[in-house]
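Anyone able to model this chain together with FE2/S2 (inorganic) cluster?
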Amino acid sequence: MDDDLTVLELTVNGNRRTATVDRRELLVEALRTRFGITGPKIGCLTGDCGACTVRLDGLITKSCLHIAVAEDRAEIETLESMSVGGLTGLQESFWDNNAFQCGYCLSGMLFSAAELLERDPKPNEDEIRQAISGNLCRCTGYDAIVTAIKRYADRGSATVEDVAQ
Ligand code: FES
Ligand code: FES
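re: yes, here you go
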């Protein structure tokens, strides 16, 4: 095997997977090109936009900030994990409130919202804006996203399972 290549083992959305990766590859690149997981998007690659957001060992993080091989044997959840049994209530609220257009920001927005709602099921608007502040949306102007999260929370059904599945 080429010295630059190595085998990476990850548990991705509950499935243990292995792939041969370049030692210099970023986690978002490995997920997309080696594991075929396209929910996390490639945006800035500098940690600023949130398009590549995943949960890594339970914590949300920007996967462009991790070298893939440094996360060998980690557990990764991506956007795909949220809709295994159909859309979550939070996703439905995004749909109902036109809270996305191209969808590029959805990994960051949904994971950030889910993490907030797990901590605080009844956040106010300022808290919602703070929670999603690490994510750039080029399409919606943010108001619809905040409305979607607020309306979902106000319905009082924000359980961990319903939010993040
Ligand atoms: S691509 Fe990772 S934060 Fe922008
Ligand atoms: S919906 Fe296009 S970047 Fe947010």
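The two ends are 39 Å apart (CA to CA).
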